[in-house]
Write a structure and sequence with these properties.
The protein is of the alpha/beta class and about 290 residues long. The chain is about 40% helix and about 15% strand. It has 2 domains: about 160 residues, P-loop containing nucleotide triphosphate hydrolases (Rossmann fold, 3-Layer(aba) Sandwich); about 80 residues, Orthogonal Bundle (Conserved Hypothetical Protein Ylqf, Chain: A, domain 2). Its main location: cytoplasm.
């Protein structure tokens, strides 16, 4: 299953990031905690390599807590400040300001020595589509904060968002990268909803998901869908059984595979199959 999606506006977003990186002190990249490596944009890795970086593992409440801790250690070893966040509840959000100031403490001290006491930290927030960036920013900003308006050098229509008197954000649209070299990366992005649903073959995608879940998380499937003899069944047999048990039938008693496929994908994305992380550091390092 060859999954590629790079609409034209993402080229514009890439240019926007390049143009505005020189205006910021630090880059905050959101990734999906269920696929922290696959949802990390290698283009942003390259573009922001000379800036301090905070990696925000969003949707951490949907991921496996133990695997979260292993990913934190893995990314910290590579020089990132790492935070696990649930942008909906706000859990972990308060760590963003503290981590940014910790990573920038030498620069802040240099600014003070030069008399630039009140210069705010400026951060760019980046991430792939549907990683929860807007929810994250809204929670970070809070009701009392307001946009500061356009500044010189910022592309028209983009605004700095004031978090507090000493912290400002520059938001950017969600961006993928032009080509997924590893098809497993594209698949995981599709599983978790980062790729536009309309371009996907959801039936085939659900079979690939069932193949992965039955191998790595069989208990989650058994618990959610009340399946039996899961080890001996093919993904198609599992899909059929789930459709039958849910009563997703069409005329003649045939399973409605389209509806069943969509429900399985939606329930994974909503966390209804439990706390599942689809990749670990060991998977990446081989």
């Amino acid at each position: 299953m060859n999954i590629q999606w790079y609409p034209g506006h993402m080229t514009k977003t890439r240019r926007l990031i390049i143009e505005n990186l020189k205006l910021v002190d630090i880059v905050i990249e959101l990734v999906d905690a269920r696929i922290p490596f696959s949802s990390k944009n290698p283009d942003i890795e390259e573009l922001s390599r000379n800036k301090p970086r905070i990696l925000v593992m969003n949707k951490s409440d949907l991921a496996d807590p133990y695997t979260n801790s292993r990913w934190i250690s893995w990314f910290e070893e590579k020089g990132y400040g790492v935070i696990t966040v649930n942008s909906i509840t706000g859990k972990g959000i308060s760590e963003v300001d503290r981590t940014a100031k910790e990573l920038l403490k030498e620069k802040i001290e240099r600014d003070k020595q030069r008399g630039r006491i009140f210069r705010p930290i400026r951060a760019m927030v980046v991430g792939i589509p549907n990683v929860g960036k807007s929810t994250f920013i809204n929670k970070l900003v809070g009701k009392s904060s307001a946009k500061t308006g356009d500044r010189p050098g910022v592309t028209k229509g983009k605004q700095w968002i004031k978090i507090k008197k000493d912290f400002e954000l520059l938001d950017t649209p969600g961006i993928l990268w032009p080509k997924f070299e590893d098809m497993n990366v594209g698949m995981k992005l599709a599983f978790t909803g980062a790729i536009k649903q309309e371009i996907l073959d959801t039936h085939t995608l659900s079979l690939e998901l069932l193949k992965l879940l039955s191998a790595k998380f069989p208990d989650a499937l058994v618990t959610r869908y009340k399946l039996t003899d899961i080890e001996s069944k093919t993904p198609m047999e599992l899909l059929t059984e789930i459709g039958q048990k849910r009563g997703f039938l069409i005329s003649g008693g045939e399973v409605d595979y389209s509806r069943t496929s969509l429900v399985i994908l939606d329930e994974l994305r909503a966390g209804k199959l439990g706390n599942i992380t689809l990749e670990s550091p060991e998977d990446i390092e081989g």
